Amino acid sequence: MQDGAGRRCGHYHGCTSGERPAPRHDTRRATGQTTRTNDDIAFREGKMLQPRRTLLSTALASAILLSAPQTFAQDTAAAPDGEEATELDRIVVTGIRSSIERSIDTKQTSTSIVEAISAEDIGKLPDASIAESIARLPGLTAQRERGRATQINIRGFAGDFSTATLNGREQASTGDNRGVEFDQYPSELLSQVVVYKTPDAALVGQGLSGTVDLQTVRPLSFDERVVSVNARYERNRIRDQRENGHRLSATYIDQFADDTFGVMLAVSRMDSPQPGYQNEVWGFTDGPDGTMVLGGGKLYRFDNSHERTGVAATLQFKPSDVYEGTLDWFHSRFEKTEIKTGMEFGTLWGSGVLRPGYTVAGNGTIVDSVWDDVSPVIRMDSNPIDDRLDSIGLNSKFRIGDHWLVNFDLSRSDVERSFRVLETYAGVASNNGYTTLQASLDPGRLYYNYVLGQTFDDPGTLVLTDAGGWGQDGYLKDFGVNDRIRAVRLNAIRSFENGFISAVDFGANHSKRTKDKASIEAKLCLTDCSGGRFGVTAPFPGGIQDFNFGGIGRLGVYDANAILDSGLYNFVYNYHEDIAAKNWEVEEEQTTVYVKADIDTELGGMPLRGNVGVQKIYVDQSSLGYSTFEGNPAGSAVTDGIDYSVTLPSLNLGLEFLPETVLRLGLARQMARPRMDQLTAGMNVGIDVTRGEWSAGGGNPRLRPWLADAVDVSLEKYFTTAAGNRGYVGAAWFHKDLKTYIYNQDVAFDFSDFPLPPPIPGQDVYPDSPIGRINQPFNGEGGTIRGLELTASVPLDVLWAPLDGLGIIATYSDTDSSIHPNGPGTSEPISGLSKYVSNATVYYERGGFSIRYSRRTRSDFRGETRGFGADYQTISIAGETVQDAQVNYTFNHGPLEGLSLYLQVSNIGDEPFAAYNDGDPANRPERYFEYGRTTLVGFSYRF
């Protein structure tokens, strides 16, 4: 017999979108640590109870855990029909184990296939940003930028194929497209993260690869005041450099007016330096006698600074069982400053002349060479980024009778990004800047080493100038990105005491999103940039510092920002078709109507739970961009768009065919909206001289989304050891069959509505027809992606009782794809796909002492990163292994109770970020970044 007490919110994201009406027998939440009843564990004193723990009983015991993600406990439950309530025996679980077990309970009781991570205490997720924590989950990994995890790849898809929500509300993104940069979110402000791998019809804004829901604390989930402070001293070390920073956070939670009004306020501050080195090849090109040779190179020493301030606040008001209101605010400001010192030099793509006698590898790549007449350019760059994120949501729940709940939610998410790229140039005045260069592949084959025929440590020989003949003495780019989402949601839930269907959830969500990008670029000229190489010079304004990288000992340096602010340079604004393409605005209005039925029944005496539903999504999208023509490089504004609808059915079933053994099935159609930069209406129009017709390249505001039919199967075995430790092992298989995907195509196009330029006197070719061709993104068909995921979270006392406290968490995924993002017949894999991904964590916790070591590994993959001039480009990134460890001691008794001390080390092995040329990974390395190791020492105190 099943009653309302065994039912829970059918999807877990703080139940912002609406939770079920309160069951008749409401189990109250209380403050404290994770609590397990004697239904599923035994006393540590040697007794052991092992009754059958069904999936339904797990849901009953865990429903409270899922609605209060930060700390959990269970009071005496009200007994039905006036029977006397019985106090349940319990064991309190703290620390690492509490985090692991809350995550296991979330996974086991969910009606969808999910992964979860939970904080072990207030503000104590162990990583600098939530991206590092998410990257350890099965089937997930992270792409690093500036030495830190940023975008999350789910099941072989890049970040643009997933969505992120905060307390169930879709988030704007700081990047150029849809992928959320998760380093914007301080881990100290979050209590839990749930990653949905299969859709739920009531989950609005879900992605094709998955949905990441970030969750903050609910103050009325506690029955007492909680204050927590955390402080960490940070040291970042690379080679002989050491720089120090700090991280601070504090959380205040309280309840007032007989626990009808709750307040949560959390503040986080990070000041984290990040020194590092960059060794990069411009690229490879055709050399003599059929060889391939590097076109140029660059060496930099950079000093990054990351300053992030985060604030999370929640007001929760529950004056009665009829009404509950919650107001959430999340703010993050992330200032990233990058100061780069170094040089660049062209070889074959510059003035260099290759000497005979070079060494050629077996694949035809020149790996050791000497060049004459190379003109090095000393570079001082500054690349600051200022990101601001604000998310606000107001949720109201109205309970009507015993079986109805009406939910109304208003939210907004706003992002502003300012990004500057400043380049300034200098050179050696002697010999007109020319010198010799030897370039040789490092024996480790990770980068090239260089030996130059002159030194750069005498300020008297250095001048500010156009040392490379690039037509400018410096360059300036100012980017701006704004992203705004407004959403309103209304839904109702009807629950049922008996029957196959336990509840029906139906409603609608309407959102409007506007995202724009602006780019202003200018040449920096000592006069008018017409003098050529060393044509105009200015005195060198700096001194000399040690460089000690890539073959350069000492190097002249100066402050690029100070030179720019001094007024030394004249600004010559640059108007070009490529710059015009970086200015656009996309507006989307999306209405989602859905209905979902929760299943809670038995099949042949076996508990069966799940959900079935459908979403109907109506989309109205439009875009503004700039079309450029000969004689009009700034472009003319154009707009275009389309409206369409998509139907997304979904089914999730979980059958407990053996005690605590669940077989899950997920069937769904999934969707990913096109990238923002693909939707731009602008194009560059010119004449294809070979064909004698108009041609163009640009975006496509009429794009429809990626669509895939997905099948997910998961087998999960949960267990409890004699000591009361929870664990599980699982295997999952997924298959996505693409119905439509997006890639660039050449198609016929009618240019008659465009202001085509008139013929130029003496022009040889001018088309006599407005019909030509355009290369732009279009919807194609076909392609699959499939994978296998294995997971084990095993407390080792299941093997031998004296190992109580020691455990292992291990995940492994193997993914294959036949999707070709550049179109049929091409071989490039989709961005974000590593065939092999593995994560392993070993932990030990006993008597207040805990230690954990984590190692995450991914194989080679294609990924998008900022390249030349800070523009996005897709490159081949080498596989990597990132390691970190943490040691804690918590005082559980005495005058220091509540105090925790810890030591943490990140990137233990100083794993570089490396990329290579597609033609030869072994002999053609293109990018090599070193970021060093980070050590943190700190404490947390809860009182």
Task: Write a concise synopsis of the structure shown.
With 943 residues, the chain is mainly beta. The chain starts with 33 loop residues before the first strand and ends with a strand. The relative contact order is 0.12.
Number of strands: 49
Gross geometry: globular
N-to-C span: 43 Å
User: What would the CATH topology be?
Assistant: Maltoporin, Chain A
Characterize the structure shown.
The protein is mostly beta strands and 943 residues long. It has one domain: TonB-dependent receptor, beta-barrel domain (Maltoporin, Chain A), CATH 2.40.170. It has a 33-stranded mixed β-sheet that branches. Strands 3-8-9-6-7 form a five-stranded mixed β-sheet. A hairpin with a 6-residue loop joins strand 21 and strand 22. Helix 1 packs across helix 2. The protein is globular, with a radius of gyration of 30 Å.
What characteristics describe this protein?
5-stranded mixed β-sheet; Plug_dom; single chain; 943 residues; cell outer membrane; TonB_rcpt_bac; 49 strands; 5 helices; Beta-barrel_TonB_sf; 56% strand; 33-stranded mixed β-sheet
Give a topology summary.
Layout: E1 34-37, H1 55-67, E2 90-93, H2 95-109, E3 114-118, H3 130-134, E4 140-145, E5 148-154, E6 162-166, E7 169-170, E8 192-196, E9 210-215, E10 226-238, E11 241-256, E12 261-286, E13 292-317, E14 323-346, E15 353-354, E16 359-360, E17 366-374, E18 377-382, E19 385-400, E20 404-428, E21 435-441, E22 448-452, E23 462-464, E24 474-495, E25 501-525, E26 538-539, E27 543-549, E28 552-557, H4 560-565, E29 570-573, H5 577-580, E30 584-603, E31 606-629, E32 632-658, E33 661-672, E34 683-688, E35 693-698, E36 706-720, E37 726-750, E38 771-780, E39 784-795, E40 806-817, E41 836-846, E42 849-858, E43 861-866, E44 872-877, E45 880-890, E46 899-906, E47 913-916, E48 925-930, E49 933-942
Parallel strand pairs: 6-9, 35-38
Antiparallel strand pairs: 1-2, 3-8, 4-5, 6-7, 8-9, 10-11, 10-49, 11-12, 12-13, 12-48, 13-14, 14-18, 14-19, 15-17, 16-17, 17-21, 18-20, 19-20, 20-23, 20-24, 21-22, 23-26, 24-25, 25-29, 25-30, 27-28, 30-31, 31-32, 32-33, 33-36, 34-35, 36-37, 37-38, 37-39, 39-40, 40-41, 41-42, 42-45, 43-44, 44-47, ...
